[in-house]
Specification:
It contains seven helices and seven strands. It is of the alpha/beta class and about 160 residues long. It has one domain: Glutaredoxin (3-Layer(aba) Sandwich).
């Protein structure tokens, strides 16, 4: 019986290990920005709070979507920032509290998704909750730098997506 339990544990580990490995790795702000500078990837900052219901839905429904997860893992450095709990943020040579930084970037509610260039330059802020099927288009639009030459509504129309 002990051998069977050990075998079952091993099989379970082998089955579930790849699922855990495929999840994108979220970082704190400063290490995330440092990684972005090294890799040249854009930064997605998920600004959230522990009490925010829509933040939890964003984690459960949007960030956990298989297509979104794979795209994020491949193309972005991911940062989680809780303005109510996280410590200081070093940005542009200055130290800010997480709350000051968030407010300075225009965050007025939660969740909010902040996109930065790899050097930390702000691209845009997406306030509120986004469904996975629309969020993937936002991710592609930002990653492909379509925002430099095209409005998001035109991008969606080009892709045949109805809002």
């Amino acid at each position: 019986m002990k051998q069977f339990s050990s075998l079952l544990l091993l099989v379970s580990f082998l089955f579930f290990a790849p699922l855990q490995a495929s999840d994108p790795q979220w970082k704190k702000f400063n290490p995330g920005l440092a990684e972005a500078k090294k890799t040249g990837k854009k930064v997605l900052v998920d600004v959230y709070t522990d009490w925010c219901t829509w933040c939890k839905k964003m984690d459960a429904n949007t960030y956990s979507d298989a297509t979104v997860k794979e795209y994020l893992k491949k193309n972005y450095v991911l940062v989680k920032l809780n303005p109510e709990k996280d410590g200081d943020v070093l940005y542009d040579g200055k130290k800010y509290s997480a709350a000051e930084f968030s407010q300075g970037m225009g965050v007025t509610g939660y969740p909010a998704t902040l996109f930065l260039q790899s050097d930390g330059t702000p691209i845009t802020l997406l306030p509120g909750y986004a469904e996975a099927d629309m969020f993937i288009h936002v991710l592609r639009y930002i990653h492909e730098e379509r925002y430099l030459k095209q409005k998001f509504a035109d991008y969606l129309a080009e892709k045949g997506v109805k809002k």
